[in-house]
Amino acid sequence: MKLDNQNVLITGANRGIGLGLAEMFARGKTHLHLVVRKDEPELVTHLKNLGALSVRVWLADLSARDQVENLVKDIQSQGVIIDVLVNNAGLLTGGLIEEQPLDEIYQMFQVNLLSLVHLTRGLLPDMIKRGHGKVINNASVSAFMHFPCATTYAASKSAVVAFTDCLDLELKGTGVTTLCLITPGIKTRMFDEISKKYGKNIEVPNDYISAEEYSERVKDAILSDHKFLFPRGLTALGLGISKYLPGVFKWATNRRFHR
Q1: What is the residue extent of each domain of the chain?
Q2: What are the CA-CA distances from residue 103 to residues 111, 116, 149, 228, 253 (Å)?
Q3: What is the DSSP string of 161-228?
Q4: Burial (CB count <10 Å: 0-12, 13-18, 19+), residue 202
Q5: H/E element holding 154?
Q6: Using an 8 Å Cβ cutoff, are 11 and 119 in contact?
Q7: Could you tell me the CA-to-CA distances from 144 to 18, 158, 200, 222, 231 in Å, in that order?
Q8: Up-side HSE of residue 122: CA atoms within 13 Å toward CB?
Q9: How many whole angstroms separate alpha carbon 44 and alpha carbon 1?
Q10: I need a surface site. Which of 33, 37, 66, 86 has the fewest CB within 10 A?
Q11: Which letter, b or e, does each residue of 156-178 get, where b requires 16 or more Cβ atoms within 10 Å of its Cβ?
C-alpha cells in the first residue's frame, strides 16, 4: 500500500509511538487526522512542516465510550474519508493483580481494546464500500510474552492480536487489509512507567528502541503489505522462546519474579 495522498487517522498521536507514526506519515505526504484529548496547534504546525498535506485534529477521550461514539458519528456525518486507521492509543496497567486499581483496569481495557474495536467497527464499512483501506492495530510483545504483573495489560494486547487476526480473515476479497504491530520496548513515557508498576515484583528488561526507528519499520511493513510486524534482536529471541519453549520462558521469568 502506498502512503502518499492517503487519509490517515491515528489515535494517541501526540506523544510516544503515536507521535513517531504521525511524523513518519507526515514525511510520506499524507493527510493526517489526529485523535487527541486536547488541541495542540504546535503539533499541527510541526507535522505540516514535515510534509503532511493537511492536518486535522479530532478531540476525544477514548476512555469514554460516548466520546468514541461521537467521534465515529462526526467522521461519518462530515463525509470524511479515512484510508488508514491506526489504532495506537494505549494505557499501561501493572503489578500484582490484587493491587491493581479496578478503575485503572476498566479504563485500560476501554482504551486498549474497546475503543479500538469501536472505531474499527465504525470506520470499516466505508473502507469496504470503496474497496480500499488498511486497519493498523498496535498490540505488544506482551500478547505472547506473559510476564508476572502484566495480567491485565497482556490480556488486552492478546485480545488485540486475536481481533486483528479474525478481522483479516473477514476482509478477504474486500480490498481492505490489516497490520498488527507486535510492538517491542519503545523508549516512551509509557515505557518509563513499566519499572514503576512492575519493578516492585520483577526485574524489568531494559531492551528498547526509539519511536522514530520503530515508525520506519512500520512504514516498511505497510509498503510491503505485511500482516504482522514482529520485533527484532533480543526481543525477537525472547518472543520465540515464549512461543516455542514456554517452559524455558516461564523458568527464566520466575527467576526474576518475587512477591
Answers
A1: 7-255
A2: 12, 19, 17, 31, 28
A3: HHHHHHHHHHTTTSSEEEEEE----B-SHHHHHHHHHHTTTBPPP---B-HHHHHHHHHHHHHTT-SE
A4: buried
A5: helix 151-170
A6: yes
A7: 22, 7, 22, 22, 12
A8: 25
A9: 25
A10: 66
A11: bbbbbbebbeebbeebeeeebbb
> What cell was used for 251?
523458568
CATH number, domain 7-255: 3.40.50.720
